[in-house]
Amino acid sequence: MAAELAAEGATHAPTASEYIVHHLGHLSTKHQDKIIDFSILNIDTVFWSVLMGVVGLFFMVRAAQHATSGVPGRFQAFVEMVFEMVNEQAKSIVHGDRSFIAPLALTVFVWVALMNSMDFLPVDLFSAIFGLFGIETHFRVVPTADLNGTLGMAIGVFALMLYYNIKVKGIGGFVHELFCAPFGSHPALWLANLGLNIIEFVAKTVSLGMRLFGNMYAGELVFLLIALLGSTATWWGFGMHVVAGSIWAIFHIMIVLLQAFIFMMLTLVYIGQAHEGH
Description:
Structural class: mainly alpha
Oligomer: single chain
Number of helices: 9
Order of helices and strands: HHHHHHHHH
């Protein structure tokens, strides 16, 4: 009887690939009988994106409300350090009115950093919580490891690029630049100029979203592979799990902050380019 139970447990135990696929799935509105469904909504991505935005807003508002002109506390000093860093980058890149752009860059940096930081939660945490209630479902807590989330933010940056191109140059100046730059204003070159400019806008948007997604997705996948080491019923497997997990978590702190900084910098660069002509 014991042998039969052990065999049954081994049969139902997930393989390494099944374990990874399960943890890379989303809690979504996708219908299994539809191959293409444009109404799909990844509920976990939306939930954690909004929650991290609210958390970031709460801490920024709290820092502003409790700011003092005297000796700052550690939290105020940290916020001021981040603000000065972002503001200096905005000054050096964007030549024009930064009353909206600098706060936008600060919001982007804090928001992306918080979303990236969700990768530090144990990969099996929410599966275990749902399992306590007898619920078997996919759930991911890293919004930036979802291409839908990062491309959504990139499209927002694309909309700002268009807005500042029109605001700074005027609709006529922007259209003229689309057709007359960079090769010249000769009518024979209009289509080539337009095609190149469209490719440039699309490449900026896609690369901005793909860069953040690729790095965070890879980081999440490494955490899953390290977690598989701990599933082996050997002392060295558990030991490697602890050692490798600790090392990767420390290294991942740099990745989390670096990717937030890069996304913020590219947002400033693209908006700064909209203030300038070819």
